Amino acid sequence: MAVWWEPTQDEFADRNGESPFVVPEFLETSNFQHLYKGTGEPRPVDAKDLAASFACAVNAFVQHYWTCLKDYEVTLDRQVEGSGHLALEEMMPQWHDDLVDHFSVGVDLEATIKMYTSGTMVAVRRIFRCCAMEADGSVYPRDFLLPASFKVGQVGRPASIVSTDEEGNSRQTLFRPFQYPEDIPGLDYHAFINTNFSEWTGRRPIHFFERKPFHRALNCAISQDASNVLRAVMPIIMDMNYFINSVHHQGGVFYSGVGIGESIRLVKEGVKLRMPRFLSTTTELKFAKSRLTDKIGPALLVVRVPQGFWGARDISAFSSCPEEYETMFCAYALFTVERISTFRMLGEQVTRIDLKALDKYEGIDYADDLYPPCHAHIDLADVNGHGSYVRQNS
Question: What CATH homologous superfamily does 248-393 map to?
Answer without folding.
Answer: Toxin ADP-ribosyltransferase; Chain A, domain 1 (3.90.176.10)
